[in-house]
C-alpha cells in the first residue's frame, strides 16, 4: 500500500499523477468527514481504470456502489482489499464499469446536452 498525495508537491499532479494512477489497482477513498463524497477522487480513480474502494458515502449519486465502486465500513476495508486483490476478475469488472461510466456517460458533452434539453422544455 502506498499513501500518496500532497496539495503542494508537483509529483502528484499532471502527468506524474496519471502515471501513478495508471499503476493503481485499488484507490482507497477515505473521507475527511464521514459520509462525504469526494467526487473528484472518484472521477480520477475510475477514469484511470483503478477500482475505487470507499467508506460508505451519503448519497453517492451518480455513482452506484457495487456497480461503479465498492463500499465498505472502515473496519471492513482490510478484508475487502484482500478479497479484491485475490479476485482479479471481480476487481477488473467493477473497475471497468466505473471507467466506462466516467469516460462515456459522465462527459461534459452529455451533461451540457441534458441541460440544453431541460432549458428547451
Summary tags:
121 residues, mainly alpha, Rossmann fold, 3-stranded parallel β-sheet, 5 helices
CATH architecture annotation name = 3-Layer(aba) Sandwich
Order of helices and strands: HEHEEHHH
Count all strands and give the number.
3
| Class of secondary structure makeup | mainly alpha
Radius of gyration: 15 Å
Percent of residues in helical segments? Answer: 40-55%
Averaged pLDDT: 89
Oligomer: single chain
What is the first-to-last residue Cα distance? 50 Å
Gross morphology is: globular
Task: Write up what this structure looks like.
This protein has 121 residues and is mainly α. The protein has a single domain, classed as Glycogen Phosphorylase B (Rossmann fold, 3-Layer(aba) Sandwich). The protein has a 3-stranded parallel beta sheet, with helices on both faces. β1, α2 and β2 form a beta-alpha-beta unit. The radius of gyration is 15 Å and the shape is globular. The protein starts with 13 loop residues before the first helix and ends with a helix. The model has no long low-confidence stretch (mean pLDDT 89).
Give a brief rundown of this model.
This protein is mainly alpha-helical and 121 residues long. It contains 5 helices and 3 strands, in the order H-E-H-E-E-H-H-H. It has a single domain, classed as Glycogen Phosphorylase B (Rossmann fold, 3-Layer(aba) Sandwich), CATH 3.40.50.
